[in-house]
Amino acid sequence: MNDNSAPLAKPRSDLGIRTASGVVMMLVAAGAIWLGGPIFALFTAAITVGLLFEWTRLVLKLSSGIIGKLVWIFAGLVYIGVATAFLVFLREFAEIYILLGIIGVVIATDTGAYFAGRAFGGPKIAPAISPSKTWSGLCGGMAMAALFLGIEGHFTEGFALWQPLLGAGLAIVAQAGDFFESWMKRRAGVKDSGTLIPGHGGLFDRADGLVAVLCATALLVLFLQITGQW
């Protein structure tokens, strides 16, 4: 019998629930950022605990030795701890547009990569790790992030060439964070880092790029402080 003789049922789309949960996430995060203070601290603490829980869940599956597990867990404490501590620092001790700019760069990267990847397709970056990521998507993400940070810079402190260049660079970091988490999931043999967010998976699935960008930005700020350029 010809396998093509009977039409296959189309998988049910989860676009609606993904959109709804995405809107809820954005509203909760925006509210916490706007209120700041103890509300934002509690929000960040909850996110930190959730990320560490999902990181540990992945580690317990991807590493077999006790020493390996402990090293991975310690690395997660540093990686996620630096990111979330810097998040609080930016909200409480820096201009709020800097924090919004970092979050906006990650969103712009995801958006640009999605639409450019869908429109142009082409060669995959690392199909064994993340089959859907293409070089055209990466370029689209870099272009969108550069455009976003350039526009934000124009309306905040005045446009400078380093702003779009920084946006493009952070887009690469965000994509690297995405690949890193995908690699962890591949090693652990799981599809998502968790099931907390309907249609999206876990917290780490949504924040992998942001965590990487926050860590990279924290290191950049530290470097500029040490060299006296900030």
From TrEMBL:
<keyword id="KW-0443">Lipid metabolism</keyword>
<feature type="transmembrane region" description="Helical">
    <location>
        <begin position="70"/>
        <end position="90"/>
    </location>
</feature>
<comment type="similarity">
    <text>Belongs to the CDS family.</text>
</comment>
<keyword id="KW-0472">Membrane</keyword>
<comment type="pathway">
    <text>Phospholipid metabolism; CDP-diacylglycerol biosynthesis; CDP-diacylglycerol from sn-glycerol 3-phosphate: step 3/3.</text>
</comment>
<protein>
    <recommendedName>
        <fullName>Phosphatidate cytidylyltransferase</fullName>
        <ecNumber>2.7.7.41</ecNumber>
    </recommendedName>
</protein>
<keyword id="KW-1003">Cell membrane</keyword>
<feature type="transmembrane region" description="Helical">
    <location>
        <begin position="40"/>
        <end position="58"/>
    </location>
</feature>
<keyword id="KW-0812">Transmembrane</keyword>
<feature type="transmembrane region" description="Helical">
    <location>
        <begin position="209"/>
        <end position="228"/>
    </location>
</feature>
<keyword id="KW-0548">Nucleotidyltransferase</keyword>
<feature type="transmembrane region" description="Helical">
    <location>
        <begin position="15"/>
        <end position="34"/>
    </location>
</feature>
<comment type="pathway">
    <text>Lipid metabolism.</text>
</comment>
<dbReference type="GO" id="GO:0004605">
    <property type="term" value="F:phosphatidate cytidylyltransferase activity"/>
</dbReference>
<feature type="transmembrane region" description="Helical">
    <location>
        <begin position="161"/>
        <end position="180"/>
    </location>
</feature>
<keyword id="KW-0594">Phospholipid biosynthesis</keyword>
<dbReference type="GO" id="GO:0005886">
    <property type="term" value="C:plasma membrane"/>
</dbReference>
<feature type="transmembrane region" description="Helical">
    <location>
        <begin position="135"/>
        <end position="155"/>
    </location>
</feature>
<keyword id="KW-1133">Transmembrane helix</keyword>
<keyword id="KW-0808">Transferase</keyword>
<dbReference type="Pfam" id="PF01148">
    <property type="entry name" value="CTP_transf_1"/>
</dbReference>
<keyword id="KW-0444">Lipid biosynthesis</keyword>
<feature type="transmembrane region" description="Helical">
    <location>
        <begin position="96"/>
        <end position="115"/>
    </location>
</feature>
<dbReference type="GO" id="GO:0016024">
    <property type="term" value="P:CDP-diacylglycerol biosynthetic process"/>
</dbReference>
<keyword id="KW-1208">Phospholipid metabolism</keyword>
